[in-house]
Write a structure and sequence with these properties.
- By secondary structure, the protein is an alpha/beta fold.
- It is built from nine helices and eleven strands.
- α6 runs parallel beside α8 and α7 runs antiparallel to α8.
- It starts with 6 loop residues before the first strand and ends with a helix.
Length: 295
Amino acid sequence: MIDKESIALVVVLFNPSEDDIEFVHCIASEYGGVVADNSACESFAGTEIGKMTYVPLMENTGIAHAQNVSIQHILLNSHFKYILFLDQDSRFSNNFPLRMAEEHEKMKTVVPNLAMLGPIVVNKDTGDSYKSCFHDDKQSENGFIVRREIISSGSIVDRECLEHVGGMLDSLFIDFVDFEWCWRAKKKEYVCGITANISLNHKVGVNMKKIGNYSLMIWKPFRYFYQYRNYLWLSRTDYTPWQWRIATGVKFMLRLFYFPLLVSDGWQCWKKMLRGIACSFKGYSEFRKEIEEYG
């Protein structure tokens, strides 16, 4: 029987709103874990928020580093069996973490090598679920859907798997951190997926723009630096899927042509894309070193 005391939450903050802060107080009243804060100023007083540990990092260290700091704290507490990752803007009922842990345990009876399990992620603005453009979901009788990679927010993994696969790659900073972890888990013969039985309201990106029948996800300009740099880094690993390399490479190449013309702040985004390409030659050795450390 799973109880709330066996579940640790990892919440990463960056300049949270009052609503975000209130929500953290709410979930921390029932669950343990770590709130890692990438803001320049402390969002909470003290080192405890309810049952959770508060770690102010005092600068934007990236989501990967903040998650790793949280994981290190959590693994020191042997009573935590499950780790559930959250973004500050994800919203759910208080029983969501418990339901995800129970779902993970149920799915493992069918998929013994299950790694990370995510919910159906629903755009909180439109109510539409996020789906892959390249994969058709094949749902098992119990609601499990195999996914090559999943969004980290709302996803859950058990302690044993996390210790085996390792943490996140700090050098990636933000983009494709969760994707890389899923691919590394697969290399170690694990399976990632989502459950159709649970959903989570979340928003990926900042805005959506319609170009014909295609919906284009728009991010803040600085994100394109990390997307392009990290794409070029990840494309050089032996476990990054070829389909992802080709599909993402084509998409990123096309962006260079139409972003300045069709997207608000498109020129700023374009400059960040080019800078990401240029900077892909820097820091690559540290990226490789991290991969080697995780085996």
